Amino acid sequence: MENKRILVIDDEEYVREVVQICLETVAGWEVIAANSGISGIEIAEKEQPDAILLDVMMPEMDGIMTFKKLQLSQLTKNIPIVLLTAKAEVTQDQELAEIGIKATIPKPFEPLELPVQIAKALNWDV
User: Fold this and answer.
1) How far is residue 115's CA from residue 113's CA, in Å, rounded to a whole number?
2) Which of 22, 55, 74, 120 has the fewest CB atoms found within 10 Å of its own CB?
3) pTM: predicted TM-score of the whole model, two decimal places
4) Please, which pLDDT band fits residue 86 given cuts at 50, 70 and 90?
5) CB atoms inside a 10 Å sphere around CB 50
6) How far apart are CA 46 and CA 92, in angstroms?
7) What is the band of 115 on the pLDDT scale with cuts at 50, 70, 90?
């Protein structure tokens, strides 16, 4: 897989660590991590990642609100976003696609399959 930079926004430290280890080891991607929507937006604007893996359920600012704020910024509106959520519902996929979400990956996820799931969602070479 070609070298990509992924921003992981998740309030759970364990999830961020598992995702980072997996994406770096299996895919060779660079991973940047944020523990909240607010810090994630700041990091996305500064670092300009190739994609964002965004948790839906977070305190203060949830993933959908974070997504909406990212869409409002000229600096981040074109960064593809994949949701990572324990509340994934297949019926929401069409609605999410209509607002610009590239895919939804349910928690718990299979760490070794995560890079392939992200790459397929974003039409990247696997």
Assistant:
1) 6
2) 74
3) 0.90
4) confident
5) 16
6) 30
7) very high
